[in-house]
Each structure stands twice: as structure tokens, then as C-alpha cells.
Amino acid sequence: MKMSIAETSKAARPPGPSLRVAIALVVAGIAISIPTFIAGIVPIVRTMTTPIRFDAPSRVRVHLGKATYMVYEDTGQSSIGSPFSSPGRVTLTPGDVTVSAADNASVEVYDRGTVRETLSSGGDQFVGAARFTTPASGDYTVSVRSTTRKAILIARPLSATVGSVLGWFALTGLGGIVLFVGIVLLIVGSVRRGRSRNAFAYAAPPSPGWHPDPWGAARWRYWDGYRWTEHVQ
Q1: Pair 197, 14: CB distance under 8 Å
Q2: What is the mean pLDDT of residues 27-44?
Q3: How confident is the model at residue 11 (pLDDT cuts 50, 70, 90)?
Q4: Is residue 96 a part of any domain in this protein?
Q5: What pTM value is reported for the model?
Q6: Rounded distance, CA 23 to CA 40, Å?
Q7: At 102, phi and psi to the nearest 5?
Q8: 94 lies in which domain range?
Q9: Residue 168 pLDDT level (bands cut at 50, 70, 90)
Q10: Among residues of the chain, what percentage have pLDDT more than 90?
């Protein structure tokens, strides 16, 4: 069986896309998207599930990291349903909240801002009433004054938490694109290689000898006249 140089080169090259490239893209996509998604979602889940809760009026000593925190007030409403279904009025003001560091240095407390922050805890809806920023990680004393007894939460604002992890989610999206491209190349390559094997199966069998590997695992594979052997070059 004689073949020209051009025909031999074309037959020796497995139908694309390359299986190795496709698998590499799939592995890279998984390696990028899964860890970055976990890195982005964990802080959000922690913010929503592990707030500091106490009853006002009272004073608590808590350990806080260097970040912005929100003081949430229990509105007495159920957390079932949309958090935007009510105006979420709060009675606490920044003047009702006092924050001081371990060295008794005062931490300024601000208004809650224009963004309405809500958290759910124990089936109740809490709405952000005031916020403060800790200059460093350490122990802080938070005092809340109130004329009536009410539950209070201290947690990082959800909007700030989401903003801090947007970079991780961007990498997750990039990893997802790489994974998608790898899967598409894997499917296309598998289909083309399958068609190539089928076409070769119905062709006249070659004479015994070295021929371009129809499976693309090597450049040459030995045909003994009846089957393809395991001998490759």
C-alpha cells in the first residue's frame, strides 16, 4: 500500500480537536472554578449564618476582624417571604450604639446608609440600623441602648461581603468558560475520531506493515493483515 507524503502526513494526524488539549481544558476549568466558587461563597454563607446575637438594651464584648459591620434590629416580622415586602422600619439610631476597642478608644458609628440590609435569624427578619468600621482585629465592646427589649444582630453587611468576593466569582466564571470549551472540544473530537474509525473499518484492509495509527495514540501502528497490533512507533 503506497501513500504520498502529503497523504501519509494527513492520515497520521488524528482528527481534531486534540484529545489531550480538550482534557487539559476540562481539568483546568474544574481546577479553577470549584476552588474559587468555594472561596467566594463561604464568606457569604458565614455572614448569613453566624451573626452575633444578643438582646438590647445591653453591652457585649465580642471579637471582630478588621472590617465594616452592621448592627441589625429585629423588626418583629417573619423572615418568610420577600425581604422587600415591607418598609423595614427601625427604631435604633447611630446615637443608640456605642462601640469601643480594648484600649477604650471609641469607634465611630454611622447611619446604615442608603442600601437596605436584611438578615434572617430564628424565623425573624432583622434590618440594618447602624454601621461601624473596626480599625483592626481585636476585642470590642458594643453597647446598644433601647427603651424596649429587642433582639440585635452584629454581622458584616451582605453587600460589602459580596463586593469583597466578586474577584473570586469572576475567576469562577473564567473557569466555567474554560470547562465549557474543553467539554465542547472533547465531544467534537470524539465524534470526529469515531467517524474516522468507522470510515477506516469499511475501507479495504491494508497490507501487513506499518501504517498511520487510526486511533491517534501514536504516529504509526503495525497492521498484521487481520488486526491492529499493540506495536506502535
Answers
A1: no
A2: 95
A3: very low
A4: yes
A5: 0.61
A6: 26
A7: -65, -30
A8: 50-164
A9: very high
A10: 49
Q: Are 134 and 107 in contact (CB under 8 A)?
A: yes
The pLDDT mean for the chain works out to: 84
CA proximity to 155, closest of 9, 2, 45: 45
Grid coordinates 474577584 are at which residue?
Answer: 167
Q: What is the pLDDT of residue 212?
A: 86
- Tens of pLDDT along 106-152? 999 999 888 788 888 888 889 999 999 999 999 999 999 999 999 99
Report the distance separating Cα 181 and Cα 56, nearest Å. Answer: 54
Q: Which residue has the higher pLDDT, 170 or 195?
A: 170
Distance CA 149, CA 158 (A): 25
Whether the Cβ atoms of residue 110 and residue 132 lie closer than 8 Å to each other: yes
Query: Does any domain span residue 180?
Result: no
Rounded CA gap, 214 and 218, in Å? Answer: 9
Distances (CA, A) of 65 to 26, 184, 198: 38, 44, 64
- Which triple of cell numbers denotes residue 174? 473564567
Nearest to 160 by CA among 63, 46, 74: 46
119, three cell numbers: 438578615
The domain that holds 150 is classified in CATH as: 2.60.120
Supply 162's cell numbers: 459580596
- Residue 156 in any domain: the answer is yes
Q: How many domains does the chain have?
A: 1
Do you know the residue count of the chain?
233
Instruction: Report the distance separating Cα 186 and Cα 228, nearest Å.
Output: 24
Q: What cell does 136 get?
A: 483592626
C-alpha cell at 161: 461581603
